[in-house]
Amino acid sequence: MDVNLISAIIFYSIIFIIIYLYRKKFEIHGIIALYKTNIGLKLMDRIAKRFSGSLRVLSSMGIYICFIGMLFITGFLLKGIYNLLFIPDSDPVISLVVPGIKIPGFIYVPFWYGIISLFIVVIIHEFSHGVIARLHNTKVNSSGIGMFAIIPLAFVEPDEKQLSKKTAKQQLSVFSAGPFSNILTAIVVLIISLFVISPLAGSAFEFDGIEIEDVVEGAPAEKAGIKKGDIITAIDGVEINRTNINSLLSSKDPGDDVVFQTPEKKITVNPIAGKEDGIKTYYGIFMSSNTKVKDSVVSTYGKTIPVSLLYLLQFLNWLFILSLGIGLANLLPLGPVDGGRMTLTSLKRFFSEEKAARLWKLLSLFILLLLIINILFPFLKKLIYPSL
Predict the structure, then answer these.
(1) Structure pTM?
(2) I need a surface site. Which of 14, 26, 63, 111 has the fewest CB within 10 A?
(3) Residue 264 has pLDDT above 60, yes or no
(4) Least confident interval from 5-9, 42-46, 118-122
(5) Which residues touch 63 (CB under 8 Å, ≥6 apart)?
(6) DSSP tag of 275
(7) Where in the chain is the domain with CATH 2.30.42.10?
(8) Do 371 and 332 meet the contact criterion of CB atoms below 8 Å apart?
(9) DSSP assignments along 136-199, one per residue
(10) pLDDT digit string, tens, across residues 187-246
């Protein structure tokens, strides 16, 4: 039973039922459903007034950082094209993210980690747009939440007429506020993970054998009876640790009796010769370190708190990835996304409005083509390299 998939199905079913039942309160535009409110508008005003000095410095800094991010993500897409054409065994440089749904060739995000992280990311993103709009005395008409197909979204609606009359720098600071806030969030989350949560979790756990993550069908390990989830504590009577497991396994010869010790039983595996250069013996297993809560920690705090730290660390890991990824993706110089609006505003400073619009459309089409090719990377790769 795939708990993540079931959670995703139940969650999206409830969301779509709510949208259907209250469809008169939603604005439906094709696959986009928006629910407009005034929630958060007063808070945006208060923050903009109270921290105006700091926000002006940060928003100015954000413009330059976001232009650097724009160059970075565009270069990333170009690298993806290069990899596709010249590096057969390369992986995609970007990935579609649908929490709880496994898409072949793309990164898989566990449902609850992903959906909660997405809500946090989009709310921070849009709220920041609203705060900086109010900083520059631009009215925010509404805020709200919605769905883009099966992707949750949030939005704020600055008054476009008022915004268009602001200086180019003020407009750029409003457009860059969302992506910049996501980048800052990623940095803060990374610092908390590395210097607070990770050390706490690390001090509460200790090594407790090697876990078998997967077993290759028909391989020596499977034939011997080793199963996914088994915990290996010793090899041929030698207690294993993080550093000696590979040397213990590679020291054996094809055909040897290699005894895997688990807490419940002993399993004898007869490895075969490795097919790749430098690999003498082949077992057909994928492994990772297994840990347990230290006895001293259990006696003082129990198991709930230390185990919760691991879940929190995993959540922060996905929050970091999605904050940085969505922030950079919004900086693509493409159409109506933040990077596209920044690009158009900048072009208007150097060209006539008509020429700037033409160049913007051409650049948007080019970036869209790069994006589509990178999204289709796994499928195009199979067409170009059918033997892989």
Answers:
(1) 0.85
(2) 14
(3) yes
(4) 5-9
(5) 169, 172, 173, 176, 342
(6) S
(7) 217-283
(8) yes
(9) TT--EEEEEEEEETTEEEEEEEE-HHHHHTS-HHHHHHHHHHHHHHHHHHHHHHHHHIIIIIHH
(10) 999 999 999 999 998 899 988 999 999 999 999 999 999 999 999 999 999 999 888 998
Closest to 371 (Cα-Cα) out of 95, 170, 165, 168 = 95
**Could you tell me the pLDDT band of residue 32, with boundaries at 50, 70 and 90?**
confident
The yes or no reply on domain 217-283 and CATH 3.40.50.300 is: no
Comparing CA positions, the residue from 60, 185, 36, 38 lying closest to residue 135 is 60
- Residue 178: which of 160, 153, 161, 159 has the closest Cα? 153
- Asked if residues 63 and 173 have their Cβ atoms less than 8 Å apart, the reply is yes
Both tokens assigned to 90: 């390369």
Q: Which two tokens stand for residue 273?
A: 């010769």
Name the nearest CA neighbour of 121 among 315, 371, 309, 336.
315
Helix (H, G, I), strand (E, B) or coil at 154: strand
pLDDT of 100 > 90? The answer is no
Look up tokens 């706490």; give the residue: 200
